Amino acid sequence: MPSDHEDLARRIRELEDALAAELAQKRQRFQYRLERSRVVFNDEVIARHRAARERLSSFLSRTRFLVVVTAPAIYILIVPFVLLDLMVSFYQAVCFPVYGIPKVPRRDHIVIDRHRLAYLNGLQKLNCIYCGYANGVIGWVREVASRTEAYWCPIKHSQPVMAPHGQYHRFPDFGDDSAFREQLSEIRQALKRDDPDPD
Known about the structure:
Elements: H1 4-29, E1 32-35, E2 38-41, H2 43-52, H3 56-61, H4 65-75, H5 78-99, H6 122-152, H7 177-192
Antiparallel strand pairs: 1-2
Helix pairs in contact: 5-6
């Protein structure tokens, strides 16, 4: 019989599937399709988007001065994001084959596509590229870290965790030493099969 955590995880997956179906409907509504992961709009929609684009001068003229002044603080973070990306790529390439864990594809997490929207000006497109990369790296690193945690220390914490990763629901409870000993091998085998839910 599935535990409450397993049941909740199953329901979350069902909601994610429903969300994917809704996104497919929105593609039709906003008249675009995906061709080899690239968004394609028809000519009429592109023309409408271009007509809606705000000029860069207008965009900057209504931007608060302190927002402009703090922008370098945002953009300087590209350095640690790139370093994190490189280091985790190295870690995953070296360690995951040793552990028998399938690698987490970066392309599944780092999605950079909003710059193709014709209703965004150049600065807005740059911001969207940056945010897509930064949030994608964080999501990708989180998945690499979750698989690492599932391999080495799959134990729930003693207190609730805000937005736990996808592997967490399978971890034995805090303090349940027998479940840890019994389930560690099973959890590792599920990782090797690239199976997020071994049940």
